[in-house]
Each structure stands twice: as structure tokens, then as C-alpha cells.
Amino acid sequence: MRILVTGGAGFIGSHLIDRLMEQGHEVICLDNFYTGHKRNILKWLDKPYFELIRHDITEPIRLEVDQIYHLACPASPVHYQFNPIKTVKTNVMGTMNMLGLAKRVKARFLLASTSEVYGDPEEHPQTEEYRGNVNTIGIRSCYDEGKRIAETLSFDYHRENNVEIRVARIFNTYGPRMLENDGRVVSNFIVQSLRGIPLTVYGTGSQTRSFCYVSDLVEGLMRLMNGDRTGPINLGNPDEYTILQLAQKIQQMVNPNVEIKYEPLPQDDPRKRQPDITKAKTWLGWQPTIPLEAGLKLTIEDFRARIENSEASTIG
Ligand code: NAD
Ligand code: UDP
């Protein structure tokens, strides 16, 4: 199959491309390199069945493909809030362009939506039926509301134009290749503890998240794409931790001497988040297999190698 991955040079997209290439598909990676990087897909660049296109999805593009994994959108609050209007454009115009492409070539379209559509949830854990508690005018809205309209667009293209859609609501995912300056909690705590500087816990650290290792998530995305359920389907690891617990775990694993310091909680920061994955289990036969500690170990190794490399080249 010829498969388009938008945002393919990013964190999740590049892991997905690894799997698709290993399965022998022809892959087109489309990215504007805002938060993605060529080094993530370096090993495929000289392969005949791989193509890299530098393109911004807010502009239309004509391609012939069988499936579209639509991942292009900055995912970290630091990056999506840097230029919030651009984030909205990416979610609205970008998703419309990719759905238009899917319609024209009759490709199956998978949207990488998010647990953020549940906002600061009043139901716990979150099932797909829960309609969410999102602030329409806050600093996270460009992303949360952007993804909500991306879901709406997907379902309208499905109802109006028979586009085959799949919608995944992805919960916090971590793993190798996250950016060092990504700003997300797992990468921040790992980089801080490797550098021996205090871990920045926002608020009291009592807010919770549930962390899924990237290989598990990619498996879920591929099962959803190739199965017969439209979704939306929650994909995430239901093991829930407070942010303080996460800080202590990483501190223990990397550097027990490093301190924890408390900083103000950002506006609209969800207090808790945990997926109900009953649907993923029954419809896709999917559930995460990598426990937090094992996933963190692999992620820490990756960051350690990158940080040592960059320090060596600075000294050199
Ligand atoms: P990422 O920032 O590493 O990847 C996003 C990629 O999209 C980057 O390569 C970036 O350069 C590219 N991109 C951004 N705007 C673009 C545009 N206008 N045109 C073309 N390319 C563009 O993030 P990620 O963690 O890999 O997330 C991938 C997708 O999964 C995103 O849609 C995100 O919303 C969703 N998601 C991720 C998580 C998570 O925890 N990582 C959770 C929920 C949803
Ligand atoms: N967080 C933190 N310290 C950091 C980065 C994030 O305490 O250095 C907190 C943040 O306030 C949030 C949680 O960790 O409660 C997860 O943040 P992240 O940005 O990773 O993801 P999201 O809020 O989008 O789930």
C-alpha cells in the first residue's frame, strides 16, 4: 500500500513510519519540520519506497495514496501555544486539506485526535461517550478546540462524502525521540535529572496523567486503521500516576540527588486524566504491554545518548 503520514518527521509519526516501512509499504512522509526533524527518519531517506515532502498542510497538495495517517500538529503545550493561530489553522485548514485529499483519491483517513477533547474532565476515567469540559477561550483552546473541530470535520466528510475515517483519541505518549526542549513532563523530568538541575513540578504535583509507551500506541493506531471501527477510540495506558509520583520515579531512576522544585500550575491544566480502554480492548484486541518503568528506562537511555553526544560536540 502507499501510505501518507502527515507529521511523519515528528515523535509518534517517525515511530509509525518505522513500522510501516518494516512491513514493506511505500511511505510518503509529509512535514513542515516545525517540531519534527530529518534525523528521526534518516535511516529511510535513501530507500526507494520512502519519500519525504517538506510541505505545510495548511496549503493543499495533490498526491495519490491508499491510506492517510494524519498526525501533523504540534502536541506539546509549549509548541502549540507558541503560535496558537497557526495551531488552529493546522487543525482546521490542515485537516480539511487532508480530508479533501482522502475524498479525491478514496483513501482511508485516520485522525490523531487527543484526550484533550475531554478538557479538564468531570468524569473519571474518560470513556468515548464523555463529551468533555473544554474552555473555549483559554490558552489550551487552540489545540483542544482545534482537535474537536478536526473530529467534527472527519465525521462530516464521512457522512457527506463517504470518506472512510478512523478517529483515535490519544492519551499522553512518551518514548525515544521526544525533543529535549519539548516541554512535556516526561522529557522535562528526564532532561533535568540527567543535567542535575531541579525537576520542575507544576502546582502541587497532585494532578494525574496516564503514560503510554510509543510502540504500544503505534500498534493501536495501526490496528485502528486496518480494522472496521470508525471510533472515536481511546488509545492510552490506563496506569495513572500523579505528576509528583512521576518526578520521584524519574529522580530515583536517574539521579536520586537531584531536587524537586515547585512552580505555578499553568492555566486550565487538567487535574486528572485516565483512559477507559474497554473499546480498544474489545474492538481492536489492543492494550498496552510496556509498563511505565520499562518504557522510562528506554527513554532515559535515548536522552542520555543524545545529551552526551551534544555535550561532546560542544566540548569538541
Ligand atoms: P510532534 O510535535 O513530535 O509531531 C508533530 C509533527 O507535525 C512534527 O513533525 C511537525 O513538524 C509536524 N507539523 C506540525 N504542524 C505542521 C503543519 N502545519 N504542516 C506539516 N507538518 C506539521 O508531536 P507528536 O507527539 O508526535 O504528536 C503527533 C500527533 O499525535 C499530533 O497530532 C498530536 O496532536 C497527537 N497526539 C499526541 C499525543 C502525545 O502525547 N504525544 C497525545 C495526544 C495526541
Ligand atoms: N508538568 C510539570 N512539570 C513540567 C512539565 C509539565 O509538572 O516540567 C505537568 C503539567 O502541568 C501537567 C502534566 O505535567 O499537569 C503533563 O504535562 P504535559 O505538558 O506533558 O502534557 P499535558 O498537560 O498536555 O497532558
Automatic annotation (TrEMBL):
Enzyme Commission number(s) from the entry: 4.1.1.35
Cofactor: NAD(+)
Enzyme class: lyase
A cellular component annotation (GO) from this entry: cytoplasm
Major localization class: cytoplasm
Annotated metabolic or biological route of this protein: Nucleotide-sugar biosynthesis; UDP-alpha-D-xylose biosynthesis; UDP-alpha-D-xylose from UDP-alpha-D-glucuronate: step 1/1
Membrane topology according to the record: Single-pass type II membrane protein
InterPro entries for this protein: NAD(P)-bd_dom, NAD(P)-bd_dom_sf, UXS-like
Stated name of the protein: UDP-glucuronate decarboxylase
Organism whose genome encodes this protein: Aerosakkonema funiforme FACHB-1375
